[in-house]
Amino acid sequence: LAKTTQPISMDSYEGQEVNITCSHNNIATNDYITWYQQFPSQGPRFIIQGYKTKVTNEVASLFIPADRKSSTLSLPRVSLSDTAVYYCLVGSGYSTLTFGKGTMLLVSP
Amino acid sequence: KAGVTQTPRYLIKTRGQQVTLSCSPISGHRSVSWYQQTPGQGLQFLFEYFSETQRNKGNFPGRFSGRQFSNSRSEMNVSTLELGDSALYLCASRTKELAGEGPYEQYFGPGTRLTVT
Fold this sequence. Notes:
The complex is a heterodimer of chains A (109) and B (117).
Chain A: E1 9-13, E2 18-23, E3 32-38, E4 45-50, E5 53-56, E6 61-64, E7 70-75, E8 84-91, E9 103-108
Parallel strand pairs in A: 1-9
Antiparallel strand pairs in A: 2-7, 3-4, 3-8, 5-6, 6-7, 8-9
Chain B: E1 5-7, E2 10-13, E3 19-24, E4 31-38, E5 42-50, E6 53-57, E7 64-68, E8 74-78, E9 87-94, E10 107-108, E11 112-116
Parallel strand pairs in B: 2-11
Antiparallel strand pairs in B: 1-3, 3-8, 4-5, 4-9, 5-6, 7-8, 9-10, 9-11
C-alpha cells in the first residue's frame, strides 16, 4: 500500500485559500488519490478524488502533477467550519483505505 | 436514503468483559469496514466484510472479531477488554455501483464511543 505523508497541522484565517500537500512517492499506476475530512467525534467524510491533473467540485480542488508523487488539496476561502482533520489516501477499487494521522487545519477568525 | 447507523453510540465496560457493536450499512451497500480511532494511533483499519466474507484484516489481536449477516449488517466483537481498547469505533460502508474506477467512496457512521474502566 502506498504510504502518504502530510503536514501534521496548518493554521489559516477565515476567507483565505488553504493548500494542503500530500506526498505519495510509491503510488501505483491504478491508484487514485482521495481526500476525507473529519470533524471531532464524527466519521470521516469524502471530499474529493482524482487520478491526474486537476479535479474540482463544489467544496475543493485537487491538483495532481504529472508524476503523481504528490497532490494538493485546495480549499478556497475557508471558514471557521472548515476546522477539521484532512486525510489523504491512495488506493483503487476495493483496496483497503489506510488513514494516516492527517492534517489538523485550524481556521481562526 | 438513510446513512450508516451504529449502535450503541456510547458504551462503558469493565476490563475483562466483552462487547458487541453493531453497524447497519447504507441500503444496497455490501461492503462494511470497521476502524478504531484513538488520539495516539489515529484511525486504524480493523477489518472489512463483503457479502458475509472477511476480505481484509488489519493488524489487531484475535480478541477483535467481526461478522456480516446476509442483510449486510455487521457486528464487531471485542473479548477480554483492556484499558487500551477505549476508543471510537467507526463503521463504514461502500459500493462500487456508484463509483468510477477509483477507490469506492466510504460512508462512515457516527461511531460508538467505548470506554473501558
